[in-house]
Structures are given as structure tokens and as C-alpha cells.
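Following up on my earlier thread - several people asked me to post the actual chain instead of describing it. Fair enough. Here it is, all 267 residues.
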Amino acid sequence: MIVLKIGGSIVNDLHSTAFQDIKLISENNKLILVHGGGKEVTNIANKLGKEQKFIISPSGVKSRYTDKQTAEIYTMVMSGKINKAIVGMLLRSGIKAAGISGIDGGILKAERKKKLIIINEKGRKMVIDGGYTGRINSVDPSLVSILIGKGYVPVISPIALSDEFDFLNVDGDRAAAHIAGGVKADSVIFLTNVNGLILDDKLVRSMTYDQAKTAISRTGFGMQKKVLACTEALEMGVKQAIIASGQTENPISASMTHHNCTVITHN
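Reply from S.P.:
Thanks for posting it. Predicted structure:
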């Protein structure tokens, strides 16, 4: 089984062969697609007059601060606009796809972060209210398994449900990692706009789990969460995590043969 994470910002920039490649992969493997879309959330929020705030954790990870209004916009854009656009593209390519959110069937449960420790503009630590951001604590793959069993490719937006039944913003990369762990996937692939992890101006083609953990602090904002998600997937039993470009020919097939990408394994 393969879990494929597509960044929302590259959906329209995928190589022309990508969707036929997804079709080929889905005919020979059980496939789940998880998508992001943070940039589109920001665009729509700005059009609605809701300025977006981004925060930085003590470890240097940048993320969106999600208050209640932002959570509503996030849910609307992720599970509506972006999710259905991707499903439409898959259907036009002859792929039997079904768009759902992490809320449907209780796929993703998360604990609302009560407090967040951030680094302020002066470089000092401070504590703020956690808002509507969640930390995933359980995955129920039942609905996903039903869809796969009926021949569908599930397309999942990264929204989670809290114990208080609030809709929570969860990071798309980490959602993909947890879903991969929850369904006991063999591989999780993160398609992005670069070939993989770049360190010291060179593409890192392979890493062990321990090397990846050490490298997290050396990566930039965009790649940090992907490397973190890779390590989390491995911790949950996934055999390999791959970071690859969606802008190359047959990007999924290429990544599965470890061509021009970063592959992270247990050892």
C-alpha cells in the first residue's frame, strides 16, 4: 500500500504525466492520496479579509496560527475547493476517486493544543493560546479501507476532529504520515516542487532514520515538516518515506525506483 501526499501548491504544476502515472500505480497498488493547500487557504483568507498569522516554534518550525475563523476558512478551502478540484482531475484521468476529509468516519482524531510556545519577533520564547491547531493522536482507517475495497482512491484533506468535536487544522505532511502508519503502508511519498532534501547544496539521495532526525534542524521551513513527517511515518511502521518532485516525468513511478529523490529508511 502507498500513501501519496501532494502539496496543494503544486497540484497545478504537476508534470503532465502525473495523473496517468497515478492511474498506473493505483491499478497495481492500493493507493491513498493526502493533499495540502496552505497557500490557497492564505489566498482565500486574504480575499475574505482575514489576515493570516504564522508562528515559529522553538525548534524553528513555521506554521499557521489557527483561530476559530481561520479554522472555518481552512476547513472550507481544504475540504471543498482543493479536495474537489483534485478529485475532478483524477476522474478526468480515468481514476476512480472519492474525496473525503480526515473528519469523515473519524479518520483523524486530534488533541487540541491548549497552549503554544513560540519564538516572538525579538527571538524570545512566549506562550500563546493554542487556537484550533491539533496534534494527531489516533487514526481510524475503517472508511479508507471500505473505499479502497470498492476500488476507489481516497483523497483526504488534513482536517481532524477533537474530543470536543471541533474541527482542527493539522499539518498535511504529518497527516499523511499518520494515515500511512494507520493503514500499515509500505511507502509514503511526499511530492513537492524540489527533487528532495538538499543539504550543503547537494541532493541527499538516501538517509537512515537517525540521520534524518539529526538533519531536521538543518533544513529550511518548507522541508522541515516533510523530514519530520518521514521520521514519524517510520516510527509508526512504514517501511520507507520518499521526498520527490512532482514536476518530473512519471513522478510516482520514478520515486518508487528511487530516481532523483530522497529516500529515508530505518537503516
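The CA atoms of residues 203 and 256 lie 17 Å apart. That should answer part of your original question.
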